[in-house]
Amino acid sequence: MTVSQSETQTSKLYDRDFCLWAQETAKLLREGKFSSLDMENLIEEVEDMSKRYKDALKSNLRILLMHLLKYKYQPTKRSQSWLSTIREHRTRLEEAFEDSPSLKPYFKEVFDKCYQKARKLAADETNLPLETFPSESPFTPEECLDEYFLPEL
Fold first, then answer.
1. Spatial separation of the C-alpha atoms in residues 31 and 86, rounded to whole Å
2. Is the pLDDT of residue 65 over 90?
3. Which residues, including other chains, have CB under 8 Å from residue 49's CB and lie 6 or more apart?
């Protein structure tokens, strides 16, 4: 089998069975068989890895902000579940920063945009008017990550 045939076989495997493709790609990398790699899909997957981490960060931040808003603006409905969700998403963000410290500046970069989405989610979940929630975040990025911070009215 020629190099181009081997690469084509790996490329076809990518379309049929992603997990098997990933295992085969790792094996080829370990063996140093770089010419047999499906480079096009490998490059795409490596680029997508960063995007997935960033998407997860934004999702965790939106959920955290939404629950902080609910906690602040619906004090009579506070629950252990809300506190647990706040703690869980802070932990996920903390772990993301430990694994990839370069995500910390990205967190600050997307904070306001995530707040705007969280504000709408909070309005949807609480049935409160969107205007109930300030157009600018009442929480700083640091407060959101502070394990002891809980907003009061």
1. 45
2. yes
3. none
Amino acid found at 101: P
DSSP 135: S
Q: Are 118 and 59 in contact (CB under 8 A)?
A: no
The 10s digit of each residue's pLDDT in 110-132 is 999 999 999 999 999 999 999 99
The count of residues in the chain is 153
Per-residue pLDDT tens over the stretch 132-146: 999 999 999 999 999
Measured CA to CA, the distance from residue 132 to residue 123 in angstroms comes to 8
pTM for this structure? 0.82
Predicted confidence (pLDDT) at residue 55 exceeds the cutoff of 50: yes
> Rounded to whole angstroms, how far apart are CA atoms 23 and 5?
19
Q: Rounded CA gap, 138 and 69, in Å?
A: 9
User: Which amino acid does the sequence have at 50?
Assistant: S
Q: Rounded CA gap, 149 and 153, in Å?
A: 13
Place of tokens 């004090």: 75
Which residue in this structure is represented by tokens 């020629």? 2
